[in-house]
Amino acid sequence: MTFADRYFLRPVAMAFGLFAAASVPAMAEDGKVIKGVVELFTSQGCSSCPPADAALKKLVDDGDVVALSYHVDYWNYLGWKDTLASSENTDRQYAYARMLGRSGVYTPQAILNGRDHVNGANLQAIKSRLDIMKAAGKGLAVPVEAKINGDEISIKVGAGDGKANVVVVYFDRAKVVDVQKGENSGKKISYWHAVRDIQTIGMWDGKPATFTLPATVLTEQRGKSGCAVLLQSMKDAETPGAIIGATAVLAGPQGKL
Asked: Which fold has domain 36-251?
């Protein structure tokens, strides 16, 4: 499955007046301003990755970014098959490489707001770059809200400029893996927000809009315990671009990141 090739279940229902202006900052439920989106590309078979996995956990704990972990499969040849990896995650990283004009990929790589990259183990650089992006107008300019209401997930996107895909990224909240072979052999490593599936559920054209998903996508599909909603522009049909809005929601009593 490529990044932008699937639409999901319910048709889009347009609604107006849901948000004020595009300049309204993205907010978490606890009132924190969401600074941006961090997409970490990592692998259980990469000896350099555990510090980056720990850095992502700190971002999750801070609660002011949407933090996602994409396990890639190209290190499996070293002797350990990553239990959370998928070819789709690898495809997404290579798509970002095209967007960035890079000839290759690496782990651990953190993509920030779909616009830039840093070493995923450098937590200070990640936070600093997100602050710089926000000050330069390259942060999350469009408000996005997602809530579980009974048997539905309600998604609201505010007004803004341009066009973008509405992308839902499903993840497992936490996994502990006993790595038995490869470069991390003998280690038990905790992984947070490991991506299991990506779906494009519709388009946004700058006007306020609502989208609805069945809540069962979190409770009944392969144990997925949360999802992020990314408002992401596209450089072309297969190449993702800037993320201009985002939020996340959890299954269970927590309800939201």
From this structure: Immunoglobulin-like (2.60.40)
- Say how many residues make up the chain: 257
pLDDT digits (tens, 9 = 90+) for 86-130: 999 999 999 999 999 999 999 999 999 999 999 999 999 999 999
* CA distance from start to end of the chain: 27
Residue 219 phi/psi, 5-degree rounding, is: -95, -20
Alpha carbon distances (Å) from 73 to 80, 84, 90, 190, 252: 10, 9, 7, 18, 30
For 48, half-sphere exposure in the C-beta direction (CA atoms, 13 angstrom radius) is: 12
- Tell me the three state secondary structure of residue 21: coil
Q: Alpha-carbon distance 55 to 254, whole Å? A: 22
Residue ranges of domains in the chain: 36-251
Residue 170 · residue 227 · CB < 8 Å: yes
Q: pTM of the entire structure?
A: 0.87
Sheet holding 152-157, edge to edge: 13-14, 209-214, 152-157, 144-149
Measured N-to-C along each axis, helices 50-62 and 123-135 cross at an angle, to the nearest 10 degrees, of: 50
- pLDDT per position as a tens digit, 169-208: 999 999 999 999 999 999 999 999 999 999 999 999 999 9
For range 139-152, the mean pLDDT: 94
Q: Answer whether 180's CB lies under 8 Å from 188's CB.
A: no
Q: Within 10 Å of residue 161's Cβ, how many Cβ atoms?
A: 10
Tokens 């600074």 sit on residue = 35
Number of C-beta neighbours around residue 32 at 10 A:
15
